[in-house]
């Protein structure tokens, strides 16, 4: 079936394919230029945007990492991403189980309330959230960035995992019930292994969303010591606009974990993100 | 729903959903309700909020900056939705004819921008667009088009399209991948049948591929329209709504009103209008963009 398609465009329409590849390169071009600029010196840069440097100036990375505080931002991003992903998955699995199999009062209403949270943009409730965090004394703490992001991922995590659990064959569950296994045990030993692919897809989503989150740390943190990478990048830009090589080195530091994981889990990324969108 | 074998007494069941719901209520749902309440009051962030009813919404009706932000958002929608949709669907139709391996390679490239943080993309593109030392203007000068080397993000006319181009660049590959996945779902015999009937490549595209891709078109429309209404990161890092409000959109206006001018009630009203717009668009697209002959969501 695949072969019916192939051939029709191979050699005959070379210009079209060339055009296609040029288009594809347009997505990579800014990143390639970024990488190139990040290893240049300032004088190299003046000689032209596409001129190769005499030797790679890795000291730009050192400057971004140390003087630009990217070491702080990087660790902050990791300190934030890990608990957000881990706790969201744990809580989402438990509540997903609840919504998939259990009955409780106001089940439908609670379901609707969760869906609302998936549609309302963060911008709509950031002002009350800011004052709430201030009232709780959490502004400028890791909790300010971590806790709201876990809360914000609850609707998606719950509904995504609930729908994954509903795909688990009923016979397996009934066999476990007949064996007299307790519900936590069934969830942990029977359901969890089956929905592991869904969990890893969810983990990937949560990782990207949290790593890329901008508004929450922008509003809820104003101490440089707690800024995550995208925020750090913004304030770093304010200080170093003139030093383009160091700025681009900083940008490479922000996006390289994403690019590396993208190249490793490419299929999972593309299929997960498009499937998540089409749901 | 049919009672599951796993079901138990309600108070025990609640234990499963309570932690997630509690966290969600305290940090998302209550703030949403509070934003609704706040939008009905006047508050500078310090003194006690004053109830003004729908006063803020009435004021929005005659606020020319708010209208401007909506107009800008409408222009941006062309770049967020129309361009990626058209480019994505055409690319998918072409890529579909290639060998499997080449398809996968192209897909990897096209999808790349979509995984990036939009805030950082904004900063990168602000550098690319930089009037003095940005690569774009250097290329233009290099090929003798120095006259076109505009101060893109600082230009009243071009700032908005310049931001739009970045949004289109961010989304088109994602759209293409969704359409490509959609085409895999289509029964290949339909293409063959159309060809046997004498339809040419272009006719097959318009009369077979396009109608069958309606579910994907709907998804793409939904996602990109909502993304355009939500747009904040990209604009905040590229222009902050400037120059002279040329790129002002509702969310940026909300930020300025709230966090720069301390008019929190009014800012909340702007934010609520944005959320209502999203709900409306969601409803309209679900209601009117339907695959022919099937009613399922």
Description of the structure:
Chain A is mainly α. Helices cover 77% and strands 0% of the residues of chain A. Chain A has one domain: MetI-like fold (Orthogonal Bundle). In chain A, helix 5 packs across helix 11. In chain A, 44% of the residues are buried. The N terminus of chain A is likely disordered. Chain B is an all-alpha fold. Chain B has a single domain, classed as MetI-like (MetI-like fold, Orthogonal Bundle), CATH 1.10.3720. Chain B is 70% helix and 1% strand. Chain B contains 13 helices and two strands, in the order H-E-E-H-H-H-H-H-H-H-H-H-H-H-H. Chain B has a two-stranded antiparallel ribbon with strand order 1-2. The two termini of chain B are 19 Å apart. Classes of the chains: A mainly alpha (279), B mainly alpha (297). Chains A and B meet through helix 1, helix 2, helix 5, helix 6 and helix 7 of A and helix 1, helix 3, helix 4, helix 5 and helix 6 of B.
Features:
A: 279 residues; mainly alpha; MetI-like fold; 15 helices; 77% helix; disordered N terminus; B: 297 residues; 13 helices; 70% helix; disordered C terminus
The helix/strand order of chain B is HEEHHHHHHHHHHHH
Helix content of chain B: 55-70%
CATH class group of chain B: Mainly Alpha
What count of structural domains of chain A? 1
Content of β-strand of chain B = under 5%
Fourth-level CATH superfamily of chain A: MetI-like
Given the C-alpha coordinates, what overall shape of chain B results? globular
Roughly how much helix do the residues of chain A carry, as a percent range?
Answer: over 70%
Outline of chain A: globular
Q: Runs of chain B with pLDDT <50, length 5+?
A: 293-297
Structural class of chain B: mainly alpha
The number of E-state strands of chain A comes to: 0
CATH topology of chain A: MetI-like fold
Structural domain tally of chain B: 1
